[in-house]
User: Fold this.
Amino acid sequence: MARTQAAAGLSVYQIFNLCQKSNAAHAKCVGLLWQLERSNSEKCLADILNCFKHVLLIPQGEMNGERVVRFITGFVAGRDPAREEDCDTFAEKLLRQLINLVTARDKSVRTRCCQLVQVIFNNLRADELDEDLLDSMQESMLERLADKVPAVRTQAVSALPRLCDPGDDEQYANDPVMEGYLQLLAADKSKDVRKTVLASLPACKTMVTEIVARTHDVNHEILIDKPVSVASHLRTDSKLHVGSTCGKQIHAASCSITQSSLYIVRDALELPVHGEETAYAILADKVEVTYLSVQQRVELLRCGLGERVASVKKQASLMLRTWLDETCRADVVKLLEYLDVQSHEDVAVSAVQALIEANAVNPVAMAHAAAEQSLGLRQSPDDTPLSSEEALVWRVLCCHLHYAGKAKGQAAAALTGTLATVEAAAAEDQLKALEAALPPTVSDFMHLLSAHANAGQEHSFAACQLLQLAATCVDMTDATGRQAAADLVTHFLRDPSRFASQGTAWEAALVKLARHVHASHAELADAMLSMLWGMFSSWGLGDECPNPEDHLMGTSGGDTEQESFQSVLHQASHVRTQNQHWIQCLKVASLLLRQLPAARLYTTGAGQFGCIEDLWPQLIMPGLGHAVAAVRLEAMRALGLYCLLEGIPRPEGQMAALRAGLVWRNPQAEVASAAEEASEVAATRVVAAKALCDWALVRGPKSSDQWYLNQAAAAQDLQVTPPSSPQQKDELKPLVDLLLGMLQHTLQADRQSSTGSKSQAASDVEEDLASVLAEGIAKLLLHARHWSSASSKGLQDAEIARALAVLFVAHFDPATQDNPRLRQCLSVFFPAYAAASSSHQHHIARAFRRAAREVLGVAPIKKAPAPQLMRYMLQLLQTEPGSKAEGAQQDGGQQVPRPSYPGLAAELVSEVAQCARFRESKTYQAALLKVLLSLPLTSQDPTAIKRLRALVDEVAGLVKDRPAAKDLASFAKQLQHLDATPEEGLDADALASILASLNLQSESAQSTADPCHENTPGADGLAQNSPSQTLSCEGNAVSGQDMLVDCPLPFLESGPTAAARTPARARRSNRDIVDDRSDDEAREGVPPTAARRQLPARSARTTKKLVEVVSSSDSETDASSGGASNSTDP
Assistant:
């Protein structure tokens, strides 16, 4: 033994120095170090610990330190099998010494200690370890899970997997290690810590949900970079099967180690290693597809296959292929059975397409095999119908062959030479495979489709798939086949029960097939109009009485009671059938209108419906006057599509019906409200709102206002409700005002409800009215540039500002918390609108003050979201405009100036003055000042900066709140730096105009003002200033009158006129003001008495002192007044 050591001639220190030079020497150094340990274990342990003291001080990432850690990993894992027990004892001694150092103050020492602890512990092969050692290690590592250094937490996570206790149920219910893991996984900010925790979780039922949830991690590296597991012989198979147990003892647990220590195990021990695991790879490796729920499988595939990051999408595709190969044995139909294709058709289609792209499924081979064996679409119509999974697979395969062959053919046409020949051959292979997969003729395909459609409700999904396949891949050049397809389409369109049972997917596929059968829009319109007239006339809809009660009249007195009962049942069944016929005709008309871009071009001589224009007076208008709400709903949907067609004569005439549908008014027939179903009425309003928004977007926001308002004012005989009704007033508004008013009314109704949630009728509708109106108004604002404000169809700047204010209030209204669609729409719209152009940001600035005021009314003042709204709008104003038309430089090469908002700053300063005057809304005032300090301002307009400085100086004397005064002083300093000539002030006229706008008067102004030329007060108590006296910046004129518009607080107003205009909520919100008038006097307009402030009760001592001070001051006043009178006495 001594001779071997002498022959080596190396000490422990020399071995550690040698292992730092190269990884190649590690295997030799491991053997030499074990020889030294066998010769003198105690001395070797002391020397190794002494070397560790130097290693612990090396920061993580240094090459020398990392090589030493790798060497220690190989040293522990490469022990002598003949002395395995002694080697484990030596490793335990090392471990005890390192555990005592994991609480060191230096973060580098803690990191290295935890790293060495986890690599030594995870490479121990002992079946049993000392209980005290395990308890000490678990306690210390659990403490390190809360370390402030992410690297320490990462190493602590890697050291704990073998210490997990699965419990009796083997679900890790009360395990402290699992509790720490889950807490880190949910809340830790470091992606490295979350990655390590994810790889360390065991594959049990309770942990599968956590692993699936990590596929939604905000950092995609969580999905593609994971710690790796050591070789398979250091762990047992952890594949999770149904009914399998997941608890692993310490000697059989899977060992997760860091990436840095992985390949030293590979190099030193030459162990087989798994590749880099991801969240999807972990699920594929540890969890069988049968153990996941259908919802979990669908969510995994939807998020993974739809991910924008290519590496994540690739890992999800590999997981899907693992499911196909291991669980389904390469049977794609069996794989789709695990996905519930009828409920999740889009995910199933994405899965099949991903398998085709990964070459796991060969469409060409499957098509030729089906043709040879008469399977799939080649089967006889008399055979068992295809299952839902088989029909979807064949649809995706045939569509892939169709589009691939088309793309290859186009590529061959664009190329020449050998490349063109290759592409043409590939296209021929794809098209031949498609021909082999499809039935021989179009008529055979239609027979197969008809057989599936008539096979029952359970095969309706398969029939819908075949319908989509026929509309995409079947060649309709054969006249016989095209006629068979047209007859089948007509048969399906005339069947109301099929429409009601198979949903919108069936309708879309049927219309797509009809469009594929008929080559042009004119041919399609000709065929469908003829079919519509046949349905309309054969069902007797033209002669039907629209009121169902007329069909249920009492029978003659000669009928017996049984005959009367049977007659009533027959009449009720007839009414239901007629209602279904009305709905079917209107649905078919909507399907036709959705496919046509214009109206006048499509005419036919067959039938009563000679052209598209005939649908309005003969079908749509009677449907709007029907007594059944479901019929009116379909008629309103058809009318919305009809109004969008080009070439309709007098399209404004249909706007009356759309407006009436939005405000719950029926201009065609008086229908009892008891016959209306609440959910369908709500759906009708939603459809009308969509149609009006689409009209405004396509034809212009004001394209029909003038015509409709003139006609509505003149046609009094068509009005059902009296002119003074709220519905009448709403309909007489311009279109944009009507949409904004309905949005505000809807939000107000939700706000007044006890829970703030939608009613039951609104909750039954897929889309609520508020979200539809908000989306439509947002689209109008985003595309307002297409309609110039100078034209009669465009929006003015004031209208845009008002609309923006309404949308901002809707976005922050607490009543919309339960409306995620509305908030999601607006959260996408506002950043896009602000980034589109700088003019949009100026519109936001004009809407700033109005939105901040209006949002105060959606909740109590202390809970109003005004601060959040102002911060959000400020963030939008600070957005860099991304319009290409407004590039970084102008045409002359000059830099585009940064945006500046001095006009908005003046409005906010004025608002601060009013808050300070009435000592209300300190939170609101503080938010205003915070916005002022961050508002973009430049020195482009020196006059505006000087005016703003003068305004701030005057307001500073009113602000008594110390934090607010400090913020206002900081803003004054900013303005002073922006002022190029700070020593120059404003002239007296400019200063007087600013003070007049605030209804203030400074001492200097009072001393210099001419009493014969005072400002004449107007009707509202404010001085009437000339246009030149307003504070105007970047085209945004701000006057005292403008500051009073829709103000929810009693600012700038006094006297009887102000009290009459001030909202009751604002007057009652001031707790310190007492109004002595009675309610009757207030309603009659009796002027209030002088307002008196309620003061807290004083003590006798304080009152006495106050009296003395007042008496002395009164005597001084009398003396001074007496002296003055004596001096002026003649």
Remarks:
- The mean pLDDT is 74.
